């Protein structure tokens, strides 16, 4: 595959460092970025600032020497005709100015190839399992689960787009104490329906949905120990429908109950025992997780013979590798942060690299209505559900809003803003840019006469629009590095803003044939990128609004 312009420029910088015998002093990889201000070139690197402390020399001095070395390397480069200028600017940044024909050529490729021009082969077909949501089937999905669903599904879309082989998985915790409590909660409500007086303990599930399940169980004459499984199945059907309506579909629903029956937990214990990572103490079975950096060893089987939560999780993660996945991505809530080290320890005990598991902690979301946060309590059923958000603002706004902050940051979701049909609503703003372009292109049977000549696009706003389009691939690369799709929402807003500024200042139709033709091609390129970005977010691309 042909190298990108960024890769070629980075190679130039590396050769300059080698020529100056500075390459061994660079502790980090050379990074090339888009300048925040277009006046300072098309690409920039801060390598001189990184070297300044080591060399005990001002960064501008280092940058000046490096630019001289880069200039000597340019004639040997395959992109020598694309580089107009290399300058030292600011505190010591090295800025590259490219020939405008490079941008015309890139726009032409997008128009000709469509979304295929935006793809990257970063994954090279690597098998990846993304496990997310995995909410216990004890109630409807909360907004915390909804945010995890949006992040996980969008991340999977992006990784598929850059050529990873992705499977989406939901780990179904369908056995254990919480299922027993669920069954007992339904049993008490069922007894209420039979006109018995009951007292509901605080640790039982108290939401109104338990009454609905009890009514169905009463109707079907289901009682006793069977109620837990009945209620879990009932709720799981609701969860699946909610996720489907949210545009989230899983390739696999992995049952903890079936895992326990399969014997895989005992097989995992046997392998760990052979490796010397299990030991008995005080009548319990322990996993020697301190051998892999955990702060203390962990009990996996208690003295009473019952397993801890860690026991099936160890077997589950080993089974993921046994199914052929080389990279595991887990999306967890913030209450699971302390669980990371023990799971990473378990996969290392089986001989896997700790880097083969990425755990993404998705912070909570607070829903606001009329300026007031809505309080949540899962067991009491006092929380706003994914279904309520979908009914109130729709899937498009819900997905976009849940993705608008880094996963590591708490999210405030304002329902009133999400319903607005104005520029104040980010998803509306982006979708309107797409629809606005479609309305211009609609009905245009010819894009002017003669061949397409993009060189007539000379206005600052036109070139800014092309350059902004070309940032899309780098945004996808950032999403891969951070395992966070958040940057796509930021980028789409920036691209939409750049388009709206262009369109407010320059007419597309009614110009000379050459200029009309070129501007139609320009906005067609924007439409392709906007459509691709919205599709990766799982948000619709309306052609009229």
Could you please describe the fold and organization of this structure?
With 545 residues, the protein is an alpha/beta fold. Among the domains are: 5-98, 2-Layer Sandwich (Gyrase A, domain 2); 104-122 and 421-537, Orthogonal Bundle (Isoleucyl-tRNA Synthetase, Domain 1), CATH 1.10.730.10; 177-243, no CATH class. Helices cover 49% and strands 12% of the residues. It is built from 19 helices and 14 strands. The strands form 4 sheets. Strands 6-5-4-10-11 form a 5-stranded parallel sheet, with helices on both faces. Strand 2 (83-89) and strand 3 form a beta hairpin. The model has no long low-confidence stretch (mean pLDDT 93).
Summarize the amount of helix as a percent range. 40-55%
- Main β sheet profile: 5 strands, parallel
> Please, what is the average pLDDT?
93
CATH fold group of the domain at 104-122 and 421-537: Isoleucyl-tRNA Synthetase, Domain 1
Q: What structural class do the secondary elements suggest?
A: alpha/beta
Q: Strand-residue fraction?
A: 5-15%
Shape: globular
């Amino acid at each position: 595959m042909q190298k990108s312009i960024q890769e070629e420029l980075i190679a130039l910088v590396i050769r300059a460092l080698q020529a100056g015998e500075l390459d061994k002093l660079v502790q980090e990889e050379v990074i090339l970025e888009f300048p925040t201000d277009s006046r300072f070139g098309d690409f920039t690197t801060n390598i001189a600032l990184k070297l300044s402390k080591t060399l005990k020399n001002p960064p501008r001095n280092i940058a000046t020497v490096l630019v001289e070395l880069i200039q000597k390397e340019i004639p040997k480069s395959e992109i020598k005709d694309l580089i107009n200028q290399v300058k030292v600017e600011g505190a010591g940044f090295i800025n590259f100015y490219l020939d405008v024909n490079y941008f015309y050529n890139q726009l032409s490729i997008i128009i000709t190839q469509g979304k295929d021009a935006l793809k990257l082969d970063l994954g090279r077909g690597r098998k990846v399992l993304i496990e997310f949501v995995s909410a216990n089937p004890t109630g409807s999905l909360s907004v915390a689960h909804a945010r995890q669903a949006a992040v996980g599904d969008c991340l999977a879309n992006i990784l598929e787009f850059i050529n990873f082989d992705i499977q989406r998985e939901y780990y179904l915790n369908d056995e254990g104490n919480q299922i027993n409590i669920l069954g007992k909660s339904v049993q008490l409500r069922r007894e209420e329906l039979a006109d018995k007086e009951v007292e509901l303990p605080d640790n039982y599930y108290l939401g109104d949905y338990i009454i609905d399940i009890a009514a169905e169980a009463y109707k079907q004459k289901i009682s006793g120990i069977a109620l837990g499984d009945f209620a879990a199945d009932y709720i799981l059907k609701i969860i699946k429908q909610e996720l489907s309506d949210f545009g989230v579909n899983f390739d696999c629903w992995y049952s903890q109950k079936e895992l326990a029956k399969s014997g895989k937990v005992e097989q995992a214990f046997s392998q760990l025992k052979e490796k010397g990572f299990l030991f008995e103490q005080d009548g319990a079975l322990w996993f020697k997780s301190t051998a892999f950096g955990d702060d203390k060893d962990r009990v996996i089987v208690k003295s009473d013979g019952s397993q801890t939560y860690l026991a099936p999780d160890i077997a589950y993660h080993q089974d993921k590798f046994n199914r052929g996945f080389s990279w595991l991505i887990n999306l967890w809530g913030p209450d699971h942060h302390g669980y990371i080290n023990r799971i990473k320890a378990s996969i290392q005990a089986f001989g896997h690299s700790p880097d083969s598991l990425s755990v993404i902690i998705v912070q909570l979301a607070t829903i606001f209505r009329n300026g007031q946060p809505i309080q949540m309590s899962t067991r009491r059923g006092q929380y706003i559900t994914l279904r309520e958000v979908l009914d109130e603002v729709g899937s498009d706004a819900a997905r976009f809003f849940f993705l608008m902050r880094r996963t590591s940051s708490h999210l405030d979701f304002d329902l009133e803003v999400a319903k607005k049909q104005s520029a104040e609503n980010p998803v509306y703003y982006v979708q309107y840019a797409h629809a606005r372009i479609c309305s211009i292109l609609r009905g245009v049977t010819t894009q002017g006469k003669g061949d397409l000549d993009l060189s007539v696009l000379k206005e600052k706003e036109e070139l800014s629009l092309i350059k902004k389009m070309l940032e899309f691939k780098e945004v996808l690369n950032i999403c891969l590095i951070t395992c966070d799709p958040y940057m796509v929402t930021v980028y789409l807003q920036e691209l939409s803003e750049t388009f709206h500024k262009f369109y407010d200042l320059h007419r597309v139709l009614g110009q000379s044939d050459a200029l009309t033709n070129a501007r139609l091609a320009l906005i067609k390129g924007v439409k392709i990128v906007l459509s691709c970005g919205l599709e990766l977010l799982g948000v619709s691309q309306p052609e009229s609004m």
